[in-house]
């Protein structure tokens, strides 16, 4: 399967202009709350008040706080997906699958480091929501395809879940805040984890 065929997720459906304006107002209000008070201040009531609209409208648009917080991450997520689906190698097409997998997991780590405050809040609001989000499903499919190319005898769907499991914002928060691990140390550990895959697959590129 060509990775370019995977959908870029997280894009809102086509909307009427008034619905699009309401969505934008809600997201802008939530973003202001994050900047001014931190992600723990983001509640449906607080966002509705900041946006100047009824809380029912906020619930109809986003369902719960976790969906609202994930929506705040969507713009960056779309850029990230475009990079690994159609961008230059080794993250994008054109490099050996093992090198692409390493580059992808390093890029996921970078993204969590940069966005872990909001990601952690979304994880706390709904711990299992991650596995049903379009962003995770696209990442899982991408990793599954690479693993199938690297090791055709494996169960790529299960292995992809296991490889992505450590990329939880709460774990990164623990590693960086409590264990004082640096992003570079985390990436070095990712490389060691990749070397433990079935068949002893080791990416061919050097550490960056």
TrEMBL record:
Residues 43-62 bind DNA. Residues 20-80 form the HTH tetR-type domain. Keywords: DNA-binding. Gene3D superfamilies: Tetracycline Repressor, domain 2 (1.10.357.10). PANTHER family: HTH-TYPE TRANSCRIPTIONAL REGULATOR RUTR, POSSIBLE TRANSCRIPTIONAL REGULATORY PROTEIN (PROBABLY TETR-FAMILY). This is TetR/AcrR family transcriptional regulator. It comes from Dactylosporangium fulvum. The lineage of its organism: Bacteria, Bacillati, Actinomycetota, Actinomycetes, Micromonosporales.
């Amino acid at each position: 399967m060509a990775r370019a065929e995977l959908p870029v997720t997280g894009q809102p459906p086509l909307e009427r202009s008034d619905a699009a304006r309401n969505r934008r107002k809600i997201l802008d209000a939530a973003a202001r709350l994050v900047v001014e008070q931190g992600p723990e201040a983001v509640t449906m009531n607080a966002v509705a008040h900041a946006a100047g609209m009824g809380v029912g409208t906020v619930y109809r648009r986003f369902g719960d706080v976790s969906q609202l917080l994930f929506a705040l991450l969507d713009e960056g997520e779309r850029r990230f997906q475009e990079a690994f689906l159609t961008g230059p190698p080794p993250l994008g097409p054109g490099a050996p699958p093992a090198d692409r997998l390493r580059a992808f997991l390093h890029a996921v780590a970078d993204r969590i480091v940069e966005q872990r405050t909001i990601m952690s809040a979304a994880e706390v609001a709904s711990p299992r929501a991650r596995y049903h989000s379009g962003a995770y499903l696209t990442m899982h499919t991408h990793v599954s395809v690479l693993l199938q190319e690297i090791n055709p005898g494996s169960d790529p769907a299960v292995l992809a879940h296991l490889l992505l499991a450590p990329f939880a914002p709460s774990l990164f928060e623990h590693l960086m805040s409590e264990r004082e691990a640096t992003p570079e140390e985390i990436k070095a550990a990712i490389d060691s984890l990749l070397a433990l895959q079935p068949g002893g697959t080791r990416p061919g590129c050097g550490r960056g």
